Amino acid sequence: MSLIDAASHVRGESLYVDDIPVPAGTLYAVPAGSRMAHARLTAIHTEDARNFPGIVCVLTADDIPGQNQIGTIIMDEPLLAEDCVHYVGQPFAVVVGTSRMAAEQAAKRISADYTPLPAIFDAREAASAGQFIAPSRTFACGDLAKAWEKCVTILENRVDSGSQEHLYIETQGSIAFPAENDSVRLISGTQSPTSTQKVVARILGIPMTKVEVDIRRLGGAFGGKEDQATPWAAMAALAARRTQKTVKLILNRHDDMHMTGKRHPYSSDYKIGLDAEGRILAYEVDFYQNAGAAADLSTSILDRSLYHALNVYHIPNVRITGYSCRTNLPPFTAFRGFGAPQAVFVIESALTHAAAVTGIDKLTLQARNFIQSGQTFHYGQTLPVSHAGRALSECLNHYQYPELQTRVRHFNAQHYGSKKGLSVLPICFGISFTTIFLNQASALIHVYTDGSVSVSTGAVEMGQGVYTKIARVCARTLGISSERITILSTNTTRVANTSPTAASTGADLNGMATFEASRLLVSRLLDFAALELSVPRTAVTLQNNFVCVSDCPTELTWDSLIAKAYLNRICLTQHAFYATPDLAFDRTTETGSPFAYHVFGAAITEVTLDTLTGAYTIDSVKIVHDAGESLDRAIDCGQIEGGLVQGLGWMTLEEIQYGAEGQLLSGSLATYKVPDLHFAPAIEVRFLEQAPNPRAVLNSKAVGEPPFLYGMGAYFALLEALQAAQPEKPVFFTAPMTPERTLLYLMEPSKLGLPNEDPALQAMHKTH
Ligand code: LUZ
Ligand code: MOS
After folding, report:
1. Confidence (pLDDT) at 756
2. Catalytic residue among 165, 212, 655, 705
3. What are the C-alpha distances in Å from 201 to residues 66, 213, 215, 516, 732?
4. Contact 305, 343 (CB under 8 A)
5. H/E run at residue 520
6. CA–centroid distance, residue 228 to ligand 1 (Å)
7. Residue 165 is a catalytic residue
């Protein structure tokens, strides 16, 4: 089966929010935002905009009938700023006009009077100033103080990773259709129709029953539309309520890049201790998360950093602390990996550092510290079966790692102007929302009298193929072909109280609910078929669109069964609910079992560096990935390749920069470079064989986020190439490893903050 949307995508017929036909008289809304990073707002001047041709109205916080609040976890974010602005671009007005162009022009004519306040852009500075989103959290196990005494090598360093723009091809957008009795219907490009519904209801001061949110597909999201699709829907709804006209709000690329949040930059300090054989005995880390100006999902993202702080390793004594720091930048938000990549980068940096100092090669250190089946993570969850070792050994064997290593050594010995680097990156990613209550989903199946089947769930299609997977689950469970099945748009009136399609759980949770609904439906239909055919109930099944008795097709087809069932007044609708079992976490002890299961894999990355210019190519990435019994290998392969390339971008090319006043400098595709087809390496993907996962639908595994981590291999491979060129220089851990950074390393290391010294001097290297 191919992707449900494939044909309409390639013909350009798939409709995205901006393509949906709107009624005559539709109005267009454009937000206007702050020019200052932190200031008291003393006046907003809207007169020029109001008088601009084609402008219908300009709305500010005063026009909000309900509560001016869009926060979900922590209520700390207004839809439209009132007294204070907290970042450049923070919306404080919405211009509504008869054309998008008029509204955009008028929005530029809005100004404000500001009284500047001191602004902070750096997480560590915010921490020093006591500016936190929430109290810090610490996960700990073992006895660190004792463990340090047993270590032969103890190393400390600082690790920084940068932000990242989601760059979904479809920018944020919503259409709001006013309806009677203050109701509103929205088509909204959101990963979380229920969050959008809830916040729109709050802003308008109406019950959630009066807000309908519908979405057929997104043109990409990557976490950027988990929480941050909501304000644009709320602005459109507010304008529709005021004007009683359909209102469309689609951000242009400039506003989208400047006004919406991105991946959280992290700055971290680690201390790692090893014994003489390279076993990690102790690990301590402080994460300083730059949360931006409001909480958004930052606390949840920090959770995931704490959980993933050890990647795939088992360390007996650890102390992991996370600080979510409030700064004057647009609120950073969910982005594929959700805090895990930032944490994994730190432990992989620590291992790289340890390898450089001890002379034990990194792969040996990695393999020596793998978590084994039956061992317990630092947060108390026991891993029943670890596929970490299997994924690594299949990766090394299948891709003939020793030969690769020999080839790279040989190349480096023979070349002066270019050097190769090689890295191995094992990954581990926990599946489930760490917010336990979100691990629930519903499905609603209707069978119509012609035998066609519709399925509605809370899953949002964003190009990841979740509709195709759900259709497959339904078809397999009913025993009919998937052509008979239509996956309907995601709509809050058909399926209520949906969790965001996020945390890689879309197919797991909604697939399980679909499985359960299909199972109940087919069971009822087979009860009826057994009576019709006068055979024992245990003998009847549905296979390939036929009712079978003892596996032999009868004359009763699916279509005729349905027609008869209807005439016999058998219910042809089924709802089902699924909640992931056995999840628990105790916040007082910071221990529990938050994940349904873990995803494993390993990647080998090879790069070539030009030692004169710093330019490099990522030659190849070779992956073995654990997808359980994949629901669709083509889809999963696409997710693995896409995740990898996105991770490569985060680690190499993509550098978000802000000016001294907190203004985004890399706010266009001319100043923000993302991977393209020419940059992408040769990618090989192999699935871990015979790894059925009893903890997800039809033995599959979630696939969305884990492969993002593979991109990190490029950083360490490039570092190895740099060290092959200049072995006397120390390792450093500041991502992204842009061509500018590689050049500075080679030519001006002091500009990277590196001493021109022996790495052994830089490290605290303790010998007993
Ligand atoms: N969203 C969320 C997520 O609300 N909770 C999570 O644990 C999560 N993990 C990954 C991506 N989005
Ligand atoms: Mo997400 S980072 O919306 O799974």
Report:
1. 57
2. 705
3. 8, 11, 17, 31, 49
4. yes
5. helix 506-533
6. 14
7. no
